[in-house]
Every structure is written in C-alpha cells, then in structure tokens.
C-alpha cells in the first residue's frame, strides 16, 4: 500500500511536470495514479529505503560470517584468555558439539542481538552458560540456555508454573537475558562489566567498582577483585569469540551454519495436547519439545505472552491442519483427588500405569495415597503406544541435565596461532621450541625444516603462545617494587627477559606495575 501511494505520488508529480511544458492548465491526478508512468529500479529502491518495515542488511550465506562482523567488545589482555583459547581449541569435538546443540537456536539469538544493536559476542554467551542446552541445570539450580536462577528469572518475567518453565523457553529466556544485559550495560557503560554482572550480579560488580574508586584504583574488569568463577567468565567468552573470529589460526574447523531461521513462533490461542500439536505440525514429538523445552506437561497451556515454536517449514501445515481439525485438542483433564484415594486405583480407573500417573504429576514413587491434590489424568481410558512415547519424551524433556563443560573430552594438541622469531646468537632449536611451548619436531614441522639446525638472523614460525600459557597454567602475579627492572625480575624468577616482556606486553615498569610470571 505504501509503495502504491508513493508510486502514484511520483506519477502525479511527473504528470504535473509534463503539463508545465504546455499552455494547458495543470490537471492534477487526485487519485495519485498514472498508468503510463513506469518507475525505474532506483525509484523502487528509494521507496524501500524510506518506507519498508524491513531494515536492509548485508546478505551472508554463512551465519558465522554474519556473526564475525558484529564483534565489538574490546580484547582483554589477560593470561586467562589464552588459557581458555587453549582449552577450547584443544577440544574441537566439544566446541562443535556445542555448536550442533545450538544450531536450532543460534540464528534466532543472533537476530535478537542484532535488533538491539548489542555486540555479537552476546550471541555466543549460551556457549559459556549452558553449552547451548535449554535443559541444563547447574548445581545451584540455575536453569535453561541462559542459566537463570529462579528469583532472577522471576524479576525478568520468566514464569514458572506446574505446566511451564520460562527459564527453559528459548524465546522468553533470550528476551530476558538481553534485557538483563542491556540494563547492566546502562548501569556500567562497559560490556565487560555488564557480562561480569550477569555472572556475579550487578550489585556485587557495583560494590567492587566503588571500592576501587575509593582506593584510586582502576575500575575496568581486569582491575576488580572478584570470585574465580567471574574472573574466568569474561575470558572464556572472549576466548570463544577469538576462535570463532579466526578458527584456522587455532587449528579448529567450524561446521558451516546457514544464515536462515530454523524456527518460527506463533500464538495458537488454544490449549492443546503436546501430542496433538506435534501431529498438527507433522513433526515428531521429540523435535517439538526440543524447540519448546519450557512445556513440561502433556498439555500446552496457552497464554497470550507464550509462544509455540515450530520449524519454519511446518508453520503453514500446522495452521492449515489446525483450521481443519475436528477432533478434541485436549485428551487430558484435571482431576481433584479425594483424601485417601489410592494412586493404584486411580491409575487403573483411568487406564494408565501407576508409575505413569505419578511421573506425569510429579508424585513421589513411594507415595501411595492421595492428599486431595489436583492431578492430570487422561480423558479417555487407556493409552496407546504413541501416547506412551509422548510421555517418555516429556519425562526426558523435564529432566535436568548437567552443564556440558567438556571436562571429559580428551584434549588434543591444538595448532595455535603462529608468530615469528628471529634467531639470535646462542639460540638453538631446542631452547626456541621450549620458549614457545613446542617441541623440536613441531618447530621443524611448522617451518618445513629437514633438520634442527638454525642460523643467526633466520626467521622462524613459532607458536604464538609461551609454554606455560599453551599448557593452560595460570601465572603468578608480581607487583614491581622501586628499583626493579625486567632483567632483575627475570633473574629472580629464572625466566627469559624477552618472555617476561611478552607475557606482560610492557615496554617499561615502575613501582606498582602489575606483572604476570609463568
């Protein structure tokens, strides 16, 4: 409609212009329509730019290419970034396992981050939080892909009922997480501090910042005293960001991801069984629950602010099948038990196994007698095979899963980013390799050398990580004192002066300078 109005307006103006060259009075086309006017391509482009509801964006065939263009969080010059780069790069199967698990959700998260103008690193945060598992639950009961604690989830609108857990809902939890991070960024004006507050809490971060301000110390992430978990949290995210930005430099191959949506959301306006929803969508129950992990009972309880998530290719079929469906949408109903009723008798009356009745209703296995509570029972006695398969899938969907940290994955020797070393007097292949966390064979392979001989002035390719960092070890912190020099500190700790300078990226030191020594 907008285009037709504008085209007509341009048409009318062009018609007016053509009359201006004659003596005839101008005749305005009040219908804003001229059938002889043929807009050119650039006219339509102008119309789209001015009136389209869709913001034009560069086209990327691969989602990773799109993600990389949005990285904006500053690099953190800290040994923990190198440690975690090594951790993930040495476990490529783990990294790709996370990506495979997150494939159905990643495009959606990227889109939401992009809409808000947030750094694209935020879209990778579920890799650190839950390894992209909506059913993950931590030891402290944080749950879902974004790992919301119950109280925090409630603060950000994530409802938890007997039917539904919003912390597991990918759509609802993503919105809540981005709200949280946006609020934290508004408070601190720094994305590293906003991320730290997501892990530690904004009150704790604000307190640490105020404490440093009072002591005339730095107030950036790297300057604050914080728990080890938070200290490692931002470096983990930046390490993953660095690997995804340039996987080849770390010897990692990432699976390509299509830059198109995997799912769509819709509001159905009706309560319905999980099994019925899956049938209408012509989708296996397991796939429906993978996209809707927040629904934890046999019935999908409708609410205005709650979406059903379906594969993009199945939305049209669902809508058509729902319009044509003439059977009951609900085959389960609430039943108020009477005090003293036996669950065995109830199960028999409704044609289900007692274990199934208890599983559906979160009733302990040892409980035998009802207490007058409301339970969910079938409307029709007897469950067929597909009903039982649905209940099995629902039980798996409700089960909490530990966060996959990759700790059980055997690390490989990663191929790390390379740097250059100029051979000086006294250098040998052995001490050069040792300095850069390599062995002589690796040094020879990297330089395609037939033997271990090196020549003064020769430029060698070496690992960009010193030995202790490549091994994933934390360094000790040293605060320089009056009179200290790189040479004196190197001698005291028996490390090379060149390595000490490289580890700290410093050209000079003075009293109070913080150094890390491996």
From TrEMBL:
Instruction: Give the enzyme's EC designation.
Output: 4.2.2.-
Signal sequence extent: 1-20
Q: Which GO terms describe its molecular function?
A: lytic endotransglycosylase activity
Residue stretches in coiled coil? none
Under the cellular component aspect of Gene Ontology, which terms does the record hold? membrane
Which keywords has UniProt assigned to this entry? Lyase, Signal
> What organism is listed for this UniProt entry?
Iodobacter fluviatilis
Q: Which family does it belong to?
A: Belongs to the transglycosylase Slt family.
Taxonomic superkingdom: Bacteria
Q: What is this protein called?
A: Membrane-bound lytic murein transglycosylase D
- Which gene name belongs to this protein? mltD
